[in-house]
Amino acid sequence: RASGYATMACVGVVGVHAPARVRVDANRDRRALGMTRAKLGDARVRSSGVGISGIASRENNELRKLFDATRRRERAFQVKREPPRRVMASSDEQELSKEPSARRSYVPRKENPEVVMEAYWIERGVELVCSECEATETSRWVENRERPDEPVCAACYARQLAATRGKCCKCGKDGKDTSGMRKSKHKEGEWICTRCALRELREPPFDGCTCDACGKGASDAVGVWHRSKLKNRVWLCGKCYVKERFMIAEAEGTKCVECGTDTTTRVWLNSKLVPGAKICRDCYNKGLISKAKAEGITCGECGTDTTSSWINSKLDPGAKICYTCYRKAKISEAKAAGVTCGECGTDTTVKWHNSKLDPGAKICYTCYRKAKISEAKA
């Protein structure tokens, strides 16, 4: 026997009364509907014999009302109404759809515009020269905080902004004497200068901090600490953070826009030719070398115009030196400082590395490679 409860309005001759909770018997309603139909049919037969068209008597009007009310009740219990569902389009349909959303229009943002706000100053007839350092090239032009009608380069604007943020929470240097200020990762709500921020990356956030992925801590000579982007902002060492970034890039299907590879070393870099696209480290280095050749850059030490990477010269500000001369200069600098290998005691090597066993000490490249091989075997 099918039965249940329903809330319905009591309908009478006068009008609609308050809703009432009544017990519903579906079988009883069906029987009543059948009886009502039979009575209504008999009434029509009787009325047709006296020449009355339709049901005009008071009795037949009451039967008609009962029939209509019973039919409405039956329909109400038979038809189950569901709330409308919002159907989301598939990713393919969303990509094919060219019509913007009625609720929100999305405009893709360029990650690497050529020069931000360059057109803004050109339209006003202002010469693009920094009013502080007189530079003519920058990544973006910004209004001078002291003289809004004059432009400043991005570096000078960072210094002006740093001057309003007080002192560095680590070294105590005033913001106006720094190249920039940013929020500290270790001290909430505090500002830290750019130089100390780089040092802060190499320091554990708190005593006993370990990498959430590999479990290494400060005693394992972790180089850099980062917040995880996949987990709930846990701390990761530099190597695990790079692995996480590669996992994200692989999930997004990142490929080099120039050579088409899906692998790279260290990190993916933004393309300057295609805004929003990525390029691998090799193509990035090739682009730097090609640009340097086009500008006629040569090494200030040996005069070559070909190298794997260009480094700023410490002896001649503004000049460039090749990577080979840079390594020679680093080795000569280490010799002058009396640096020796903490493992074998040599003072000559192609490259010095920090020792993991003895923090602050150096090891030669040969001992570094031996340690890496032993670590891989273990």
TrEMBL record:
Q: Which domain of life is it from?
A: Eukaryota
Q: Where is this region: Disordered?
A: 78-108
User: In which residue ranges is the amino acid composition biased (Basic and acidic residues)?
Assistant: 95-108
Q: What is this protein called?
A: GATA-type domain-containing protein
